């Protein structure tokens, strides 16, 4: 979502908290993170992408259009018609036991929105986990869809790498990462996001953060390439003080791409040329709107981006759990299925919790959202 739109969505909840507890008390809560603190400023100040006091996109983003569509969109998010933006019954899911997965299987398991688990070459990766039943500074804003919060931190095995794309609340959840803290061996994140983890008591020795076009190499030739995307960052009112990113994971077994959040741009073709294509891509597909067209892709743009990065298998995310845009909750999956019909990649649409076997090209998926 754009900064303006997120601010709009948060205003009612934040105002209530400020009235009840006072602004200083709220801002200093641990869950807000390191925004505005010296630990963060020291990490980002020397980045070539940190310009005039904030991080900048390679391709500028147009601010949210404050027009009738924007106001109507906000109304539909706050007071949606039944069964449209928000499903009116629990979504179908599968509760896979992650702790008993065979170590020789390369798998992907989606938790809804942009949270997912992968096991590659026997190693575990958890990305952008949000296991709380809301994704905002306050518990009554951005609630989960019915039936989607079937996984809790206790269900997660030890994590070799926690991967965080940026610090928005729907991707970096304080309660979740703190509950998982003792299970996490490494944190990989874009520049500045590591300050939140240090502030929350994580050892700096396990935090690996980097700027765009840098690479973090872990044991046995595992490389996490931190790549650009068109987005923004911020936990409360601070803007663009931490970096946002996509990732390329290069292992001896596979090449995997995660888009993070962001609008369509020239970077996708560049990434495809840099890495020569990907075995598997997890791509943002949801929370879009014509009032914020450059910070979230339309499904048709996602299909184009998947072609430009030369992905062979594609799983859409950023949908199916939270309503951060007024589109029907089924719209992202319906549209990406249509847009992918004539493309040469394989579209993967698992239920929440369903195992995707990355080496099984014959695995089929039902249209569970229909």
From TrEMBL:
Keywords: Signal. GO terms for cellular component: cytoplasm. The keyword Glycosyltransferase does not apply. Pfam families: Lactamase_B_2. Residues 1-30 form the signal peptide. Residues 123-318 form the Metallo-beta-lactamase domain. GO terms for molecular function: N-acylphosphatidylethanolamine-specific phospholipase D activity; zinc ion binding. The keyword Glycoprotein does not apply. This is MBL fold metallo-hydrolase. It comes from Megamonas hypermegale.
């Amino acid at each position: 979502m754009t900064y303006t739109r997120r601010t709009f969505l948060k205003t009612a909840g934040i105002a209530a908290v400020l009235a009840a507890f006072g602004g200083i008390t709220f801002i200093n809560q641990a869950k807000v993170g390191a925004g505005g603190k010296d630990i963060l400023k020291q990490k980002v100040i020397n980045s070539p992408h940190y310009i005039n006091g904030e991080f900048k996109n390679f391709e500028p983003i147009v601010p949210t259009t404050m027009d009738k569509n924007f106001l109507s969109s906000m109304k539909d998010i706050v007071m949606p018609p039944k069964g449209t933006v928000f499903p009116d019954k629990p979504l179908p899911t599968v509760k896979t036991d992650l702790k008993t997965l065979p170590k020789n299987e390369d798998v992907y398991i989606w938790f809804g929105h942009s949270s997912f688990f992968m096991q590659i070459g026997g190693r575990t990766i958890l990305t952008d986990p949000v296991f709380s039943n809301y994704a905002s500074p306050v518990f009554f804003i951005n609630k989960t869809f019915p039936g989607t919060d079937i996984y809790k931190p206790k269900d997660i095995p030890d994590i070799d790498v926690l991967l965080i794309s940026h610090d928005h609340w729907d991707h970096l959840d304080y309660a979740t990462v703190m509950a998982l803290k003792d299970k996490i061996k490494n944190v990989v994140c874009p520049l500045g996001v590591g300050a939140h983890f240090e502030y929350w008591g994580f050892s700096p020795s396990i935090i690996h953060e980097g700027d765009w076009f840098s690479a973090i190499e872990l044991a046995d030739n595992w490389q996490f390439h931190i790549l650009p995307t068109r987005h923004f960052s911020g936990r409360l009112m601070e803007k663009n003080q931490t970096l946002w990113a996509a990732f390329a994971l290069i292992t001896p077994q596979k090449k995997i791409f995660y888009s993070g959040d962001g609008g369509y741009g020239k970077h996708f073709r560049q990434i495809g040329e840099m890495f020569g294509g990907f075995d598997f891509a997890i791509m943002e597909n949801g929370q879009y709107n014509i009032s914020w067209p450059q910070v979230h892709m339309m499904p048709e743009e996602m299909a184009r981006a998947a072609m430009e990065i030369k992905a062979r298998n594609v799983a859409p995310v950023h949908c199916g759990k939270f309503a951060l845009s007024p589109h029907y909750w089924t719209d992202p999956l319906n549209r990406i299925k249509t847009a992918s019909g004539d493309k040469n990649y394989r579209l993967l649409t698992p239920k929440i919790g369903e195992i995707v076997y990355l080496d099984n090209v014959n695995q089929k998926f039902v249209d569970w959202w229909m």
